[in-house]
Protein backbone atom coordinates (compact mmCIF):
# COMPACT_ATOMS: atom_id res chain seq x y z
CA UNK A 1 0.00 0.00 0.00
CA UNK A 2 2.88 2.34 0.70
CA UNK A 3 4.21 1.87 -2.84
CA UNK A 4 0.80 2.77 -4.27
CA UNK A 5 0.52 5.81 -2.00
CA UNK A 6 4.00 7.03 -2.97
CA UNK A 7 3.28 6.66 -6.70
CA UNK A 8 0.03 8.64 -6.42
CA UNK A 9 1.46 12.07 -7.15
CA UNK A 10 -1.90 13.43 -8.37
CA UNK A 11 -3.80 12.54 -5.21
CA UNK A 12 -6.24 10.28 -7.06
CA UNK A 13 -5.97 7.28 -4.77
CA UNK A 14 -7.43 7.22 -1.27
CA UNK A 15 -6.22 4.32 0.87
CA UNK A 16 -7.43 3.36 4.32
CA UNK A 17 -6.47 0.47 6.58
CA UNK A 18 -8.81 -0.74 9.34
CA UNK A 19 -7.47 -2.40 12.50
CA UNK A 20 -10.59 -4.23 13.63
CA UNK A 21 -9.14 -6.17 16.52
CA UNK A 22 -9.01 -3.17 18.85
CA UNK A 23 -11.76 -1.62 20.95
CA UNK A 24 -15.24 -1.11 19.49
CA UNK A 25 -16.02 2.23 17.88
CA UNK A 26 -17.34 4.63 20.52
CA UNK A 27 -15.21 3.11 23.28
CA UNK A 28 -13.18 5.85 25.04
CA UNK A 29 -9.95 3.94 24.41
CA UNK A 30 -10.54 3.71 20.65
CA UNK A 31 -11.51 7.40 20.61
CA UNK A 32 -8.21 8.30 22.27
CA UNK A 33 -6.21 6.17 19.83
CA UNK A 34 -8.09 7.71 16.89
CA UNK A 35 -7.50 11.26 18.19
CA UNK A 36 -3.74 10.75 18.57
CA UNK A 37 -3.63 9.13 15.14
CA UNK A 38 -5.55 12.00 13.48
CA UNK A 39 -3.36 14.67 15.04
CA UNK A 40 -0.19 12.88 14.02
CA UNK A 41 -1.43 12.22 10.48
CA UNK A 42 -2.55 15.86 10.04
CA UNK A 43 0.73 17.22 11.40
CA UNK A 44 3.20 14.88 9.71
CA UNK A 45 1.22 13.22 6.93
CA UNK A 46 2.41 9.86 8.22
CA UNK A 47 0.45 7.14 9.99
CA UNK A 48 1.72 6.30 13.49
CA UNK A 49 0.94 2.59 13.06
CA UNK A 50 2.18 1.84 9.55
CA UNK A 51 4.75 4.63 9.15
CA UNK A 52 3.25 5.39 5.72
CA UNK A 53 0.80 7.92 4.24
CA UNK A 54 -1.92 5.25 4.45
CA UNK A 55 -4.15 6.16 7.38
CA UNK A 56 -5.04 3.45 9.86
CA UNK A 57 -8.48 3.46 11.46
CA UNK A 58 -9.29 1.67 14.68
CA UNK A 59 -12.36 -0.49 15.36
CA UNK A 60 -14.80 -1.90 12.83
CA UNK A 61 -15.93 0.63 10.22
CA UNK A 62 -19.49 1.70 9.57
CA UNK A 63 -19.36 0.73 5.90
CA UNK A 64 -22.50 2.64 4.93
CA UNK A 65 -20.96 5.82 6.39
CA UNK A 66 -17.68 5.14 4.53
CA UNK A 67 -19.47 4.76 1.20
CA UNK A 68 -21.59 7.84 1.89
CA UNK A 69 -18.54 9.99 2.71
CA UNK A 70 -16.84 8.89 -0.48
CA UNK A 71 -19.95 9.62 -2.55
CA UNK A 72 -20.25 13.09 -1.02
CA UNK A 73 -16.54 13.87 -1.51
CA UNK A 74 -16.34 12.42 -5.03
CA UNK A 75 -19.57 13.14 -6.96
CA UNK A 76 -19.65 11.93 -10.57
CA UNK A 77 -16.52 9.84 -9.91
CA UNK A 78 -15.81 6.19 -10.63
CA UNK A 79 -14.52 4.55 -7.44
CA UNK A 80 -12.74 1.22 -7.28
CA UNK A 81 -13.38 -0.76 -4.10
CA UNK A 82 -10.73 -3.40 -3.52
CA UNK A 83 -11.46 -5.77 -0.66
CA UNK A 84 -9.26 -8.47 0.80
CA UNK A 85 -10.60 -10.22 3.86
CA UNK A 86 -13.17 -12.69 5.16
CA UNK A 87 -15.84 -13.71 2.65
CA UNK A 88 -18.58 -12.87 5.16
CA UNK A 89 -18.09 -9.18 4.41
CA UNK A 90 -17.94 -9.59 0.63
CA UNK A 91 -21.73 -9.61 0.17
CA UNK A 92 -22.27 -6.45 2.26
CA UNK A 93 -19.57 -4.45 0.49
CA UNK A 94 -20.69 -5.61 -2.96
CA UNK A 95 -24.31 -4.69 -2.14
CA UNK A 96 -23.29 -1.26 -0.84
CA UNK A 97 -21.34 -0.70 -4.06
CA UNK A 98 -24.47 -1.50 -6.07
CA UNK A 99 -26.78 0.58 -3.85
CA UNK A 100 -24.60 3.67 -3.89
CA UNK A 101 -23.96 3.32 -7.63
CA UNK A 102 -27.72 3.36 -8.24
CA UNK A 103 -28.63 6.03 -5.68
CA UNK A 104 -25.81 8.57 -6.11
CA UNK A 105 -23.84 10.04 -8.98
CA UNK A 106 -20.75 8.15 -7.77
CA UNK A 107 -20.19 4.78 -9.43
CA UNK A 108 -18.52 2.01 -7.44
CA UNK A 109 -16.62 -0.93 -8.98
CA UNK A 110 -16.27 -3.70 -6.39
CA UNK A 111 -13.32 -6.12 -6.57
CA UNK A 112 -12.67 -9.01 -4.16
CA UNK A 113 -9.13 -10.29 -3.85
CA UNK A 114 -8.37 -13.84 -2.75
CA UNK A 115 -4.95 -14.97 -1.59
UniProtKB/TrEMBL annotation:
Gene3D superfamilies: Nucleotide-binding domain of ferredoxin-NADP reductase (FNR) module. The keyword GTP-binding does not apply. Keywords: Oxidoreductase. The keyword Oxidoreductase applies. Transmembrane segments: none annotated. GO terms for cellular component: plasma membrane. Pfam families: NAD_binding_6. Residues 1-97 form the Ferric reductase NAD binding domain. One of its GO terms (molecular function) is NAD(P)H oxidase H2O2-forming activity. InterPro entries: Fe_red_NAD-bd_6, FNR_nucleotide-bd, RBOH/FRE. This is Ferric reductase NAD binding domain-containing protein. It comes from Vicia faba. The lineage of its organism: Eukaryota, Viridiplantae, Streptophyta, Embryophyta, Tracheophyta.
Amino acid sequence: MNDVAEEDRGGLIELHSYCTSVYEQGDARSALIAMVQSISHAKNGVDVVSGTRVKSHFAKPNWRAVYKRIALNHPEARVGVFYCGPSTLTHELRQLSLDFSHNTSTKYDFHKENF
